[in-house]
Amino acid sequence: MVATTTGAAAEHRRPGPRGGTERRGRVRRFLDRYWYAYALVLPVVVVVGGLVILPLAQGVFFTFTNINEGNIANPVLGREADYDVVGLANYLNVLSGDPAYGSFWGVLLRTLVWSGICVAFHYGIGLGLALLLNRPMRFRTLYRILLILPWAVPAFVSAFAWRYLFNADYGLINWLLGSVGLPTPVWLGQSPVAMVAVIIVNVWLGVPFMMVALLGGLQSIPGDLYEAAEIDGATPWQRFTQITLPGLRPVSSTVILLGVIWTFNMFPVIYLITGQNPHTRILITYAFERFFSGATRDYAIASTYGVLILSVLLVFAGVYLRALRSQEAD
Amino acid sequence: MDVTSLQTSGRAGPSGGRRPAPPRSGHRGRRSPAASFGLHAALVVASLIAVFPVFWVLVTSFKPDSRAIEASPSLINESSLDNYARILAGEKGDFLAWFGNSLLIAGLTTVLAVMLAASTGYAVSRFNFPGGRGLLFFFLVVQMFPFAVLIVPLYNLLLSLGLQGSAGGLVLVYCTTAVPFCTYMLKGYFDGIPREIDEAGRMDGLSPFGVFWRLMLPLARPGLAVTGFYAFITAWGEVAFASAFLSAADQSKTLAVGLQVFVQQNRTEWGHLAAASILVAIPAAVVFYLVQRFLVSGLAAGSVKG
Amino acid sequence: MAGVSYVKASRVYPGNPPVRAVDQLDLEVNDGEFLVLVGPSGSGKSTALRMLAGLEDVDEGAIHIGGNDVTHTPPKGRDIAMVFQSYALYPHMTVGENMGFALKLRRVPKETIKAKVAEAAKMLDLTPYLDRKPKALSGGQRQRVAMGRAIVREPAVFLMDEPLSNLDAKLRVETRANIAALQARLGTTTIYVTHDQVEAQTMGHRVAVLKDGLLQQCDTPRNLYERPANSFVAGFIGSPAMNLKTVALTSEGAVLDGLTVPLPRSVVAGHDAKTITFGVRPESLRLTGGDEVGMKLTVDLVEELGADAYVYGSVDIGGTAERFIVRTDGRTPPSIGSTVNVTLRDDNEVHLFHPESGARLETTKAPTA
Ligand SMILES: Nc1ncnc2c1ncn2[C@@H]1O[C@H](COP(=O)(O)OP(=O)(O)OP(=O)(O)O)[C@@H](O)[C@H]1O
Ligand SMILES: [Mg+2]
């Protein structure tokens, strides 16, 4: 038998003689408890935080200046920076919708339409394919591999493939359309048809992610729910709306949010397929045009667009998450 | 809950007790032949659409440039391996050096991003520490970050860190874009591993780091595979950062950058471009094939708990 | 090996209001003892156990193992092993690796580990399964692996949190006996959590009863049964449960329907309330012929268990129907719906509690301990 040392324990609990000791004790307990967690996240906070917050801060600063290629500090040429602070001028110019600054509102509208259409198709087709794939059948694994494939193709290879297919003169798509007697538009020219083309490509690119995520979501819905519903006499459609869709909600809400954010900033597809085409211009590609085009390289306006993009998305995410939460509360 | 069924990794998802839904079919048992035909027809069409663009590039990659632009396409038209031979021989740029660079950068990005995302995902999943939720929200915001427009500040930052023009700087930038989503995914995966497993490990004498290394990582292998795939794809085909942050010397380019330059200079050499594209796509396809069976469960775990 | 003591140990979950999951627990477990923590769901048993394991913070008080204060020691420094309700076997390791893992972490030589694992496996009939993964085992086998993982370590203390609750009834009884025998053989201090009072009474050297985070009583199974410290313990321990009724108190004694049970003068005198909580176990009641004084019990249900039968029925006391359970001879049970006469076997076999506090009021009966 072991005698207990009650005295020592009481000693341990006695509060420190002064507040300072108490506080130090609390700090030590806090570190004792959490230092593992902080040690684990420290690398990420340093890398991600450093590479996001510092550039963002500098980017935000740029939006209040007239910085461009001509006046930025250039260590190669040994040139000092000589840009000026211009206050809110950039924001005013951009938000005025002036075509010289990219017709902000029109482009924003196009960006919203682009994101909305793309994500709607991603989700709709992804869900349809996931439902098909979630049945027992032959070649299921093969279908799954083939359907996910577009995700694995590097973006600029896909862009190249589609540009080749869409080519007006020797592209396969126009050859097909022509051989059945349909009109053969110049797909990637200076017309709204180009927008249709990039949407097709982006849908093709984005469906696999949605499909895979939703397939996982479907597989996590307990099978006995369907059995119970079937016993209750639910029709297949009722089972879909009453069990499948609610069961997919957690997955859906996440992937739709991510899908909108990613599509909103989907720069490579449009840029690699149609280049600087005003008919396919969305916020991020315009910003990049400002940034890279010609001799001017207007970093200030590009950064202003960047900050505006971030703001639009933040507002969207805020509204979206709030809507989700209030829906959940019902 | 049946903890030990956890390892049925393939498609069952990471959480022990959850059983995958038996695939639904309108009617229990047999499908009618018509329904079966419809199902397969739909999937065959969808698969064709998914695969065709790449397939067509493959077909074209064997054709000489002049044949690649014929108005009435055909599968085989003076096809040969000449395009590949010329590219690999370095006629169109230092292809092998680009390939090596890409492999190095994508490989480093994958390893680093997975490690960072795993440790963060584990911390957020297991330790209820002040700031954890904030961190996740911050990661959501990072996804919205228009990196393409902040190339200049990023460039300045890398320059002041002495990383500009080196593979290291580029790897860090890629990690920044890949880690947030990877963290979400892995956090979801870790959430599916019962806490008792950690606690048993702690009782057996592991520190929290030990639990992470010897229990969580082995158990989250499917999640790690998916995360690695995502990071690899992010880095492998990227053009804008790679052209901005790597030195302009030809032998330090990545494949994507080299080919992009090649595309811009040789707008008509479709045959060669196609062959080069196929060469770029092959490593990505290999990685994809290795992880594809984990994709469904791994991604779902991340999205469900996101 | 070592004793364990909780010294006014509390676990308070922050919240509004804060949850005192374990409240000022004072408990000593002797070296080599098998102590069972029992209580209803949510009473803080698991929390108390996990505090000892180091998996839960100790917000107030202290915990000692083998005389050392381990209040703030991480789990690995406490030399304890735990068997979880879900077993928590490592899915990616074989049975053998699961059992040897702790030793491997301590850099015990491979041969030693192998020998110890083999020995434990033999003890638990696990030898044929050593190379299997846990998912390929039955529930009972997994349970034994979890035990084996704890045994191999030869810790100072075993902790078990409802280790049998995932087993079927028959296996549970069997395993219960095996665990008790194993503990007796190894002589390792063991703290065992269960919500099943039968398990507690059959396995423990001593049983500690918890309710709402507060220790109600800690004693041998026999004392717990015969001298419950309060009405909660009285109602919780024993199956079927003790008949506990709060009834009117007169100078004659406690008034039950037609029956007035004379109470010891010491109790009646020292008690100023008009009522008293009166407890009598089913086996302390008996059915009688109509000529004796007794309560009129209307039979609702008869549970025949072979030798014995339990009669469930209701008695009208002061206008309300009170449920009573009576044990009787299994060969001649009354029929359902009939009315029988019930009386006490022995006026001394009653338990009296304060109607408000529930605390035990001493009767004259001498303690058996
Ligand atoms: N993280 C927590 N935060 C707040 N309260 C908690 C937390 N964990 C447990 N509790 C509360 O502490 C009390 C004790 O919980 P505990 O798990 O110890 O009960 P138990 O006796 O083991 O019950 P059971 O038999 O159901 O396992 C419960 O009322 C529970 O609600
Ligand atoms: Mg419990």
From TrEMBL, chain A:
UniProt xrefs under PROSITE patterns: ABC_TM1
Extent of Basic and acidic residues compositional bias: 10-22
InterPro entries reported in the protein's UniProt record: MetI-like, MetI-like_sf, UgpAE/MalFG_permease
Location in the cell: Cell membrane
Assigned keywords, A-Z: Cell membrane, Membrane, Transmembrane, Transmembrane helix, Transport
Membrane topology: Multi-pass membrane protein
Domain of life: Bacteria
Transmembrane segment boundaries: 34-57, 112-133, 145-166, 172-189, 196-218, 255-274, 299-321
Residue numbers spanned by region Disordered: 1-22
Keyword Cell inner membrane tagged: no
Similarity comment: Belongs to the binding-protein-dependent transport system permease family.
The protein, known as: Carbohydrate ABC transporter membrane protein 1, CUT1 family
UniProtKB/TrEMBL annotation, chain B:
Pfam families documented for this protein: BPD_transp_1
Transmembrane segments: 37-59, 103-124, 136-155, 167-186, 224-249, 269-291
Predominant cellular place of this UniProt entry's protein: membrane
SUPFAM superfamilies: MetI-like
Keyword annotations: Cell membrane, Membrane, Sugar transport, Transmembrane, Transmembrane helix, Transport
Membrane topology: Multi-pass membrane protein
Locations listed in the record: Cell membrane
Residue span(s) of domain ABC transmembrane type-1: 99-291
Disordered: annotated span: 1-33
UniProt cross-references to PROSITE patterns, sorted A to Z: ABC_TM1
Recorded superkingdom: Bacteria
Keyword Transferase: no
CDD domains: TM_PBP2 (cd06261)
Similarity annotation: Belongs to the binding-protein-dependent transport system permease family. MalFG subfamily.
Name this polypeptide is given: Carbohydrate ABC transporter membrane protein 2, CUT1 family
TrEMBL record, chain C:
Domain ABC transporter stretches: 7-237
Listed GO MF terms: ATP binding
Record-given protein name: Carbohydrate ABC transporter ATP-binding protein, CUT1 family (TC 3.A.1.1.-)
Cited Gene3D superfamilies: 2.40.50.100, Nucleic acid-binding proteins, P-loop containing nucleotide triphosphate hydrolases
NCBIfam families noted in UniProt: PRK11650.1
Keyword Mitochondrion applies: no
Pfam families associated with the record: ABC_tran (PF00005), OB_MalK (PF17912)
Gene source species: Actinoalloteichus caeruleus DSM 43889
Keyword ATP-binding: yes
Domain of life per record: Bacteria
Keywords: ATP-binding, Nucleotide-binding, Transport
